[in-house]
Amino acid sequence: MKKKEKVRVLFISQEITPYLDETPMGVISRKLPQGIQERGKEIRTFMPKFGCINERRNQLHEVIRLSGMNLIINNSDHQLIIKVASIPSARMQVYFIDNQEYFERKHILKDKKGTFFSDNDERSIFYCRGVIETVNKLGWSPDVVHLQGWMTGLAALYLKKSFKDNPLFANTKIVYSVYDDEFEAQLSKDFAQKALFDGIGKTDVELLKNPTYANLSKLAIDHSDGVIRASKKINQEVEKHIKKSGKPSLEYQEGDEYIDAFSEFYDAVLEEVAELVD
Q: Domain of 269: which CATH number?
């Protein structure tokens, strides 16, 4: 497999510190891209533009040339807005996927009463497809796509099925991080139907007929090339699926050593695929 001068890593994250309150996932999603960049890889980083993110304080601005596309979800058009901000201390940009209907509300995944938003399935679809369409518009070909958080899981399905013949993504390898971010609610009972897109058949989304956290995670693992345990404790049903899948996997990393371990894991996934091709 012919390699570029620099390995390119696309981070699709559910949350990033300091834009949301600090969580283990948010901290990793903030520190990891910087660390990977400092180790000689080229990066791009995305997250949803949740309504609680202060645009003025964080100096977000719209990228007009990337905005304006409409994504059809559940037979309705939804405008894709792209915003960007910089983290000067990290020499790192973060791209934000925005849409008035899905992301203007001031809460992240639950309302002020703690009820899971009924359209979180559509928000996940919009986010995952929005990132891929934006990267396609940028003309930037990632070697590795690292998905962080359950909301990003569908990106693995879309990349492997809908965009497999796109030259930018034809050789892209996907790594999925499993966190302790389980939710008890079920996603919409129509999730499987809504998730259908070019190149995706009903059998591909069979797991989403029972749209639980575990099944969404399993679907992401099935379409990934490697899996990382990003929390010390993860859902046991998902843990069993990781082992059953036979995919390369990385155990939970203590402390701050995860950046080197993740970087080496990307290389190992790329090398394993290169050996198979050879």
A: 3.40.50.2000
